[in-house]
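subagent[fold] <- orchestrator: predict structure for attached chain, return tokens only, no commentary.
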Amino acid sequence: MAFCKFSTEYLAKSYTVIDNLFFTRFLTNTPPKHATIYLYGLYICSQNDDITLTRFAENMGYTEDEIIESFEYWQEQGIVRIVSAEPFQVQYLPIRNIGSSNRKYDKDKFVKFNVEAQNILSERMITPNEFEEYYTLMEGYTLPDGRKISSEALLMIIRFCVQNKGANVGYRYIIAVARDWAAAGYVTPEQIERRLEEYSASSVAVSSILKALGSTRKTSLDEHQFYLKWKEWGFSDDCILSVAKAIKKSGKANFEKLDKKLQKYYELHLLSAKEIEDYEKNLDKIYTLARDINRTLGLYYEDVSNQIETYINPWLSFGYEPKTLLNIAQSCYLKGKRTLNALNDEIQTLFNNGIVSAKSYEQYSNNQKNIQTDIEKMLKILGIVRNATSFDMEFWNRWTVSWAFNNDIIDYAVSLAKERGGNLTYVNTILADWHSQNIYTLEQAKLASDNYKVAKTKSTSSKITSRKYTKEENESIFDKFNEMEI
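subagent[fold] -> orchestrator:
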């Protein structure tokens, strides 16, 4: 969530800026559907709304394919860029930058590619600008290991896109697919062939998933890419189908909603149908746990969904039991750590130290209580009557863990601090001094203390001795003072 953002009321009264060039260059020659989709997308950009393709299509009253087709049209015009085919993402470009590209490539190098690409896209003419985009992809897109997508591989991708989208498929869509595959390491004809085999093998599974979501239409390229991603995450076909059927029961379903659900389960490390089923059954208990934790910390949220996603689910995925989480929350409240962020920091520290089970946390809590008792005894010796604080506990952790002092040397430092009228901060100063001198035994500490006392005694005896004057000497001083000329 953003640190700060406009209120709904502010956004409702704000404006969407449209470049005048849009009207002079495009509006009069643009189909109304494309114009309205472009303008609504511009409005969404100005609102900084994290909207999905599905919701965009529902708001506009068009199908997702119509929205994609429209943005492919605007991409051809050069005022938007499709940056991802899956999930579908669009960037709006400055209209005034159209035609500013000066990229030049040796067209003779790509003669064979040009002929074969035109043969594949036989129902339309490939424009010079489109060829330039293909050249840019082959020449300018380089993987970290230095590999580039070959012309043969790109032709295979073009042919595949035509088979799935038809001969009029837009070149921006082709490039978006090619970029996605190249980013996954598919840049040679052999690798593309393997990718196509994966798509072919997944056809039955993707069709089954689409049917489970309530659709009998032909599967799309994007849906195959969704499926392959889910398989890479570790979901089985049975698990994916189970989640798809559950989404269908809850209302309108599609691959994007299924992807969002599976991504959530993946982040929670729930990869089997049983784990997911158990999680959904316990969802009411998770909401109750979130409210109980908030109440323990003295907090209140009407909707705890965000807290569950951000905090509760990750804590449960660590292996913490609800009762243990409540005990940790109670401890944080007593320490003055009364926010979910502070509780999260505490749980992260415990987790990093292997304190997860109820038994290990109980042992840890008992140890902390013993430390508090020891600190309060030290405070009493120093003439301070109060409970141990988190600041005191930090001192103790520094002394015993970071500096590795034992109880005997700590007790001796406390006795020295008492003699000198000090407090725990003074004890920390003494121990810090010993730590810097590599003094870690009681004998070394006592010797250092004795040397300190000797040095202090010598310093005191070296003070200037005062002289006593006789009555006559004092009077002569004033006589001389009276004789001075002013």
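orchestrator: received. Logging for downstream: Strands lie at 80-85, 88-92. The chain is about 65% helix and 0% strand.
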